[in-house]
Amino acid sequence: MELTESYTLPVSQQRTWEALNDTAILRASIPGCESIEADGENAFALSMAASVGPVKARFKGRMLLTDINAPQTYTIVFEGQGGVAGFGSGNARVTLEPEGPEATRLTYTASAQVGGKLAQIGSRLVDGAARKLAGEFFKRFSAQVTDEGGADAAADTAAPADDTASTDGADSESGDAQAKRKKSWTAWISKS
Q1: DSSP 128-163
Q2: How far apart are CA 85 and CA 55, in angstroms?
Q3: Which of the 8 DSSP states describes residue 190?
Q4: Burial class (CB in 10 A: 0-12, 13-18, 19+), 142
Q5: How many whole angstroms from its chain centre is CA 187?
Q6: Secondary structure (3-state) at 84
Q7: Would the pLDDT of 112 be above 60?
Q8: Which of 3, 17, 19, 158 is close enough to 71 for a disulfide, judged by CB 3.0 to 4.6 Å?
Q9: Alpha helices, DSSP H only, in the chain?
Q10: What InterPro entries does the database record attribute to this sequence (predicted)?
Q11: What CATH number does the domain located at 2-191 have?
């Protein structure tokens, strides 16, 4: 899986860098994150609950920051195990570019591999879940770093720089269609 997106955040490059290296802000920003703790120099142990389509699991993993050039860029190398749900590993290159004194463009390119049940559900579903997770992360992250006007107002300020990367169309499906699709996946899994 390959994923590249850009977000404009309404804070300075230095503040964005500091927040990306603050475990309390990351824990509050990562959907389903249960814990994130320092585990050596530039390394973190992470525990989170996530669901991709019909597969729900608790993942435990590790992140290592490499190629650090503060406050412009670094690479995150990650790996995680989700028991019978499978595993994931990969890396993400994060770049911060100032857009004026109080705005920063964050661009990332991620590459990941999944195995186990996660790989069986199909790359399209995994890619969609990854995009949705990233979008939710940046809404929460922006709310954490701006801390102005409440979380709801701040969450709306983090938007993809490219509207084609948005998954709003998928979110606008009716609840009945989503429930029907969920039932069909559940039935398919229970038959296999």
Answers
A1: HHHHHHHHHHHHHHHHHHH--SHHHHHHTT-EESSG
A2: 6
A3: H
A4: buried
A5: 28
A6: helix
A7: yes
A8: 17
A9: 13-20, 23-29, 117-120, 123-146, 150-155, 168-171, 175-191
A10: CO_DH_gsu, START-like_dom_sf
A11: 3.30.530.20
pLDDT band at 129 (very low <50, low <70, confident <90, very high): confident
What pLDDT does residue 146 have? 86
* 92/109 Cα distance (integer angstroms): 5
* Arithmetic mean of pLDDT, 96-103: 94
Q: Provide the whole-model pTM.
A: 0.72
Distance between CA 81 and CA 60 in Å, rounded?
6
**Does the pLDDT value for residue 33 go beyond 50?**
yes
The answer, yes or no, to whether the previous bond of 98 is cis (omega within 30 of 0) is no
Kindly state the tokens that stand for 179: 């429930």
Of 184 and 102, more confident: 102
